[in-house]
Specification:
Two copies of one chain form a homodimer.
Chain A lengths: L3 H27 L4 H4 L1 H5 L22 H4 L4 H7 L2 H8 L1 H33 L14 H5 L11 H36 L4 H4 E5 L9 H12 L4 E8 L2 H26 L6 E3 L9 E3 H25 L4 E9 L2 H9 L10 E4 L15 H21 L1 H10 L2 H7 L4 H4 L2 H34 L4 H25 L4 H9 L5 H9 L4 H21 L1 H13 L4 H8 L6 H21 L4 H21 L12 H25 L6 H22 L1 H4 L3 H14 L5 H6 L38 H14 L2
Antiparallel strand pairs in A: 1-5, 1-6, 2-5, 3-4
């Protein structure tokens, strides 16, 4: 086991590497030509624009003012300075609430650390058990942990009382946070501008009617059943094939741009390509002509397909977006059951247009339940048996296997360096590749489950990922062996033995998790700010594809917060903190450093970088809350197991009360706050309606809503590009400079903070 | 273990005792003076009335036509003859669906029995394992059961396949039944006459307002938020104390009647009573004057209390019944969230006025969740630890204890006969008393949980009783020992071992359960039809209290189906049937006899006796369905355990699929049908509204709804008795005869069937 000194060295290394990331970030982001990578959000908002031609040519690319480098951590206070209301306005409620998860971590763990260090650490330190055991090697960390208390000692009362105190504190903070976020959500919804989804309900499983089209049927049904409120509706076309064609055309367009750029830079030689797969083999042709021809062909196909979709009855899906005259009418329709057959005329709030996942809208009810069953079974196998295919692939990916498939590489592979590399790294790489693709796999599973909005897809993927992390990272690290082996062990163990088995090994794994927090948490967060992948991608695209300002916007692509994979990882830290708060308090400061660092970095990122694809109004909070509750219950059960393993089984009746109270607290919170995230209260809808009628009595709502829910491929101009603006744009490396800073007063305060660092 | 012969003798005894009950019933019910005990429903419907004075005096009391006694089982076909639609019309949907549970049992178990006997019994019989084991005593029943198959034999494939077949058949029947009952419910709701609860929503947790009374606040809130639909509302007074006074006065009134009757029969002597407790000691006074004075006193108190309730602001609870102009408006309000704080303005469908449980209407939200937590913990302790207080009381209720408390009884107790009686029966009696009071205890717990309608109270009590039966009757009989000992054993066993432990002992307990089915099931059902307790109570009341026709109506009190204790007992038979269908098919015919007998008896009872207090429209079906699913899953898990105990562990992967599919089936049914039992579809509401507007355009709905939801103590005349009609009514034994038979054509067919047996 690692001693305190070892941990100190590890911490120093990780802190230094984090600093290295920060310095790299400081240098890179001050270079004007990286500006679009590190501040894309401001470009999208129109606050930073295209650069002007003033100044030396070099200074368009490289920042030569060395004073700015000295203040390389300046972005941290800057990130913290924007007040929350402005942040919500700037980045949306989803992002603002997302970073509150880190803040919640601080709120929970800072007092826990203070109490644990002032009460539990002295109690453990003076326990003096480990010193009396001769043949045991132990570290200082163990002396500070519960391991140092003699079996059956009265000192366990301290841990028991602290377990209660910590649970109550965590519940208190969770309750307050849930309350705040529920009111933030309601306030956000109430203060929002008019949005199409406020008036619209998505209706699924419209029953077929022999005499009427889907559109007529929908209109008649809602005219009859919501006579005072129905306004208009929009049927949904199955445009999946058309969307594919559009995507394909876009790909060819990119190639055409690339070849045109190449030709423009070297007019003497026309670029050529091959017609085969990926341009690797086949007949050699003139690239520009070939691409243009392909685009032409696709254009024709697209026109045909577009006509087919619009005219074909079968392309109309039994789904419609129904809009109402008032928010009240929409709220009523979304919350009530329409037909006596509860699988027909299913209504729910329409996601906002950007949030709709079009491909899933037409899945019928029975198919949905079957899909969910299959995905639940798949998830179970993926979580517990994922090692089986990995091991299989690893067994294939050995030297003999590779030599068989590609015999001509034998000479290279047999070289000692290469050989040892393959033998050493290949198994690890296979696993790593799987882990990289895991979020995508889980997202695909969620898509198969048939959720109809991107936000729901992200939420369910996050739930799946959390299960995976819990079983394979947390339990897998504590009980060595694959998840399948654990499962096998657990089902052959009694219900009381499982917490004991895990609880016993908990204190021994503290140093491992401290290292994990530093490597995965600290370094991960520091790497996050560097945005290495988007940086490289941007420069590649900028070099080869960008011709117009629009292209550069596209290349910039800030991406959005990947809630589905980030949030479960945060939950791991909550779990570790709660489990170790009583057992090994030494771990807590590392958690606190993680949360503070992550809070600052992600606050910076959502202010400057990420551009959310949609706005769900913090609809994910019930999940976050539920998972922290799960972590609490796990920690309480494991403490119970540890206590009985340590000969303090008489504490079990007292400790069993904790999970019961926690579950009750969860149910209480659920009934108290969750409706705010699922339903829309009629009172609020009525207030907004009344206000709108008073301020805008002559509003043409029908016109406003007419085209709100049209499939993106039907929206005019979505795939038409504006022509090139001027020669400057062909320049691959684009210096940028804020031109319209201070243009919008709402953002001025923050804008000037950032600006002051770079302006000469 | 009992042999087939023993079982046969047991069956014969039980069949004979059942016949004895039926004969006793046949004799008793043909006596005219018992008519009101066995056919009260027809009196309540007004189809049977007071007797006329024709015929001999004796024949008013005793049926002398001996021919009628010969046809003593005639009521059975008569009970089956009423068609279901007429039954719903006559007894309500709740009762009609309740007896469908027995029918469902037949639908499930008759094909199961046929298949089990044609496939599994031959397979078991020729298994030939038991014969080869020398030192084992075994019975023929065991030879027919799975015990006769050698460990690890290939014959288990037959059981595996049958387990699949049985599960699929059960699911199929359940699905069809759920579908039928959902459509019956919808049809019932749609064809119902106008009822106040169709237009009314109960609003709980009205927030306090400093400037307005509750009534004004409710009116303003709904005028604003449901402007087009709000009609009127009725606040709820806390009249619990007043209700108590009214009850008390009723008790005194009964005593007054009793003494007046006594005096009338013996005018020479005025009856006297004592003022102390129960009239046992204290000053001797004239009984009639004393009772009259007490009633006078209570009348005055009542008037004061009545005025206080109406005028005191504090007596108005933050609850209101809000009525709407249309069913559509009520359906909308009941299904939507009103306020942004989801714990205020809670709306739900109002139960029908008879179904309201007034005392629980004012419990605030936070208190509700705490009450539910406490009751959940209490239920857990009651289920698993109920033997502890029982044992404690049993230890007190021994000879020494009794002698200490009542020393003057020492002489009697010390007599050998009494002594052995006390020692032998007292512990059993303590347990029996507890079991008799158990439904009341569970109902009290449900009341503490705060449900606001009688139907919900019954449903939740049934759930609690089911848990108790499952743990203490089913598991308790299989694994001997108290529930607490089982619990202790289970939590120290691995998850895979529990089904094995239980599964192993399953086949051994088959004979016990067969006896149980005969004694508890067959005899219990036969005893049900005799109505011994109501019979005695009626004659006591009729002798001492009855002066008027109204009094006799009161004394008749048919009661209603005790869903809360009957339904969980049926569930036990479902559980036994499903568990033993594969293991010991011999048990199945006994289950079938139970279900057929119970079906006929209860069909007779709901036609002739029970008068439901309320009508919930079969709202209990999702619970019934869910419990049968639970029984299926338990049977599948136990079969899995049994199989691995029998060395056929390789079948586990195949068997684990069954519970997964069953759970999925449950979820599917839940989403497919449950909304029909919880929500009211807008389409149906709109249809009824439109129809009503067309047929009764000038309906004064406000007047109709004005007093619908007034606390029963405020309803005029509820406690005022009509004066005595004529001297005939003083006669304690009242001969009755149908006078208005055939008066309502709807019931004529059945009425004449019953009548033909008694009429001379």
């Amino acid at each position: 086991m690692a001693s305190l000194g070892d941990i100190g060295v590890g911490a120093a290394i990780n802190i230094l590497s984090a600093f290295a990331f920060f310095i790299a970030f400081a240098i890179l982001r001050l270079q004007p030509f990286n500006d679009r990578v590190y501040f894309p959000k401001w470009y999208l908002k129109g606050i930073r624009g295209s650069p002007t031609h003033s100044g030396a040519f070099v200074s368009k690319f490289v920042n030569l003012d060395f004073r700015t480098y000295l203040r390389f951590l300046n972005w941290m206070p800057a990130a913290l300075r924007m007040p929350e209301l402005e942040l919500i306005d700037h980045a949306g409620l989803d992002s603002a609430v997302y970073i509150r998860i880190y803040l919640l971590g601080l709120k929970i763990f800072v007092p826990l650390t203070v109490f644990a260090f002032s009460i539990l650490v002295p109690v453990n330190w003076t326990g003096g058990t480990l010193e009396h055991i001769k043949d045991l090697t132990f570290s200082d960390i163990d002396k500070l942990s519960i391991s140092n208390i003699a079996s059956g000692s009265n000192r366990f009362w301290a841990h028991l009382v602290m377990a209660y105190a910590f649970s109550f504190w965590t519940c208190y903070v969770l309750y307050k946070e849930y309350k705040i976020i529920a009111s933030m959500r309601l306030h956000f919804l109430a203060s929002e501008n008019r949005r199409p989804d406020q008036f619209t309900v998505v209706v699924r499983n419209v029953p077929p009617d022999p005499d009427e089209s889907v559109s007529e049927h929908v209109e008649h049904f809602f005219c009859v059943n919501h006579p005072d409120h129905y306004l208009t509706h929009q049927v949904v076309y199955n445009a999946n094939k058309l969307a594919k064609l559009v995507d394909k055309k876009k790909g060819w367009q990119n190639w055409l741009d690339y070849y045109q750029n190449k030709h423009a830079r070297n007019p003497a030689k026309r670029p050529s390509t091959k017609t085969g797969f990926l341009g690797l083999w086949g007949k050699s042709v003139d690239a520009i002509d070939y691409c243009a021809a392909e685009i032409e062909k696709l254009c024709k196909e697209e026109v045909i397909e577009r006509e087919r979709v619009v005219s074909d009855v079968k392309a109309i899906m039994p789904v419609a977006f129904v809009s109402f005259k008032t928010r009240w009418g929409a709220a009523v329709c979304a919350q009530t059951q329409q037909s006596s057959n509860p699988t027909l005329w299913l209504t729910e709030w329409a996601p906002e247009p950007r949030d709709v996942y079009w491909a899933n809208l037409s899945i019928p009810f029975v198919e949905l339940t079957i899909r969910r069953l299959i995905m639940a079974v798949t998830l179970f196998f993926l979580t517990f048996f994922f090692m089986i295919p990995i091991t299989f692939v690893q067994s294939l990916a050995n030297l003999e296997g590779i030599e068989k498939v590609v015999p001509f590489l034998k000479v290279i592979i047999e070289m000692p360096v290469v050989k040892s590399f393959i033998q050493g790294f290949l198994p690890g790489i296979v696993l790593k590749i799987f882990l990289i693709f895991l979020p995508t796999i889980l997202m695909t599973m969620s898509k198969i489950e048939g959720h109809t909005s991107l936000s729901a897809l992200e939420r369910t993927s996050a739930g799946k990922y959390y299960l995976f992390v819990l079983v394979n990272v947390f339990l897998g690290s504590i009980i060595t062996g694959t998840a399948f082996q654990q499962l096998h062990k657990f089902i052959h163990q009694s219900a009381t033995d499982i917490p004991v088995t895990i609880g016993e090994s908990i204190p021994m794994k503290a140093t491992f998790f401290i290292t994990y927090i530093m490597v995965d948490g600290w370094a991960g967060v520091a790497a996050e700010i560097l945005r290495l992948k988007p940086l490289i991608m941007f420069h590649i695209k900028n070099t080869f594809l960008v011709k117009t300002e629009y292209d550069r916007q596209q290349a910039m692509d800030p991406g959005s917060l990947e809630f589905a994979s980030y949030e479960p990882r945060i939950q791991l830290y909550f779990l570790l903190g709660l489990v170790y708060s009583v057992v090994t308090p030494t771990l807590l400061p590392f958690i606190i450093v993680f949360f503070s660092l992550a809070y600052i970095v992600f606050r910076h990122q959502i202010i400057n970088v990420y551009n959310q694809q949609y706005e769900s109004g913090a609809a994910f909070w019930p999940d976050v809350h539920g998972r922290i509750i799960t972590a609490m219950i796990i920690s309480q059960l494991l403490l119970m197991g540890l206590m009985s393993a340590k000969g303090a089984a008489q504490s079990t009746p007292l400790l069993i009360v904790l999970p019961i109270l926690t579950i009750w607290f969860h149910r209480f919170c659920k009934s108290r706050f969750e409706p705010a995230f699922v339903k829309f209260p009629l009172q609020d809808a009525m207030v907004k309606d009344t206000l709108e009628q008073a301020t805008e009595p002559s509003l043409n709502l029908k016109g406003y809503l007419q085209d709100a829910y049209v499939h993106p491929v039907f929206k005019g101009g979505g795939f038409e590009r504006p022509p090139a603006i001027d020669e400057e744009e062909i320049n691959p490396l684009v210096p940028t400079k804020r031109t319209s800073r201070r243009s919008t007063p709402g953002h001025s305060r923050y804008g000037s903070e950032v600006g002051s660092e770079i302006d000469p």
